[in-house]
Amino acid sequence: MPNLSGHNLEGVILDLDGTLIDSNDANARAWADALAEYGYPVPLDDVRKLVGMGADNLLPRAIGITKDTETGRQIDNLRGILLKDKYFGTIAAFPQARALLERIHSEGLKLILASSAKEAEARPLLDLLGPHAQELFDVTTTSNDAERSKPSPDIVQAALDRAGLSGSECIMLGDTPYDVIAAQAAGVPIVAFRSGGWPDGDLEGAAAIYDDPSDLLSRYDDSPLARREGELARVAGREIEARK
User: pTM score, two decimals?
Assistant: First the structure.
């Protein structure tokens, strides 16, 4: 296990697409279709490497236009329609993703969502995690809560602010190089998943790398998320004080 000594864990910040939900390929295809519809035939493999960013970062890198242009807004709108109407049926939660959330929750840690997805797109994705999955999260932040998407740290910082925690009190779970960059910029250690489609070399800087939620859950007690004896004693002390 990586050395995170001195890290008083209170919350886990989670990405959604590619981390809990197997949706990166669907997102890439929706983007590629929308771009082609407006005369920008970007190869699917090239688009796939940009998934994990929001439109504000993806569009300039893919075709050199900004989200705030009329064309940029139209492409982004079409991408959302295609994702919902054409590709949503191909999306599912990763195995054991719900069980991992429940394990983290049972440890007394805050569950904090920090997704580059729009709020209206995040809600149906969360439903794929099972009944009342949204209620497991103490804090939910999406691209609606941040000026810039990943790899900017804005969404991670917004999640920290809303949770009332510092970067040193959290660990983030993500699946893209953009998650790693955003977490590091916000001062949050990150655990990465290979489930998003990136090789380990592109996830450099992560405190640990697992295949997917199931892999992390199976090795939870030896992972950076496991609370150590000192942390458990502090939590127990707070609970006793709260009952007085």
Answer: 0.90
User: CA 51, 193, 35: angle at the middle one, nearest 5?
Assistant: 10
Q: Are 193 and 216 in contact (CB under 8 A)?
A: yes
Q: Domain map of the chain by residue range?
A: 11-22+92-243, 24-90
- Which residues are tagged catalytic? 15
Fold of 11-22+92-243: Rossmann fold (3.40.50)
**Topology classification of domain 24-90:** DNA polymerase; domain 1 (1.10.150)
Quick one: DSSP state of residue 152?
S
* Rounded Cα gap, residues 25 and 146, in angstroms: 24
Tokens 């300039």 correspond to: 60
The size of the chain, in residues, is 244
Ordered mean pLDDT values, 10 residues apiece, the chain (244 residues): 62 97 98 98 98 95 97 98 98 98 96 92 96 94 91 96 97 98 97 97 97 98 79 42 45
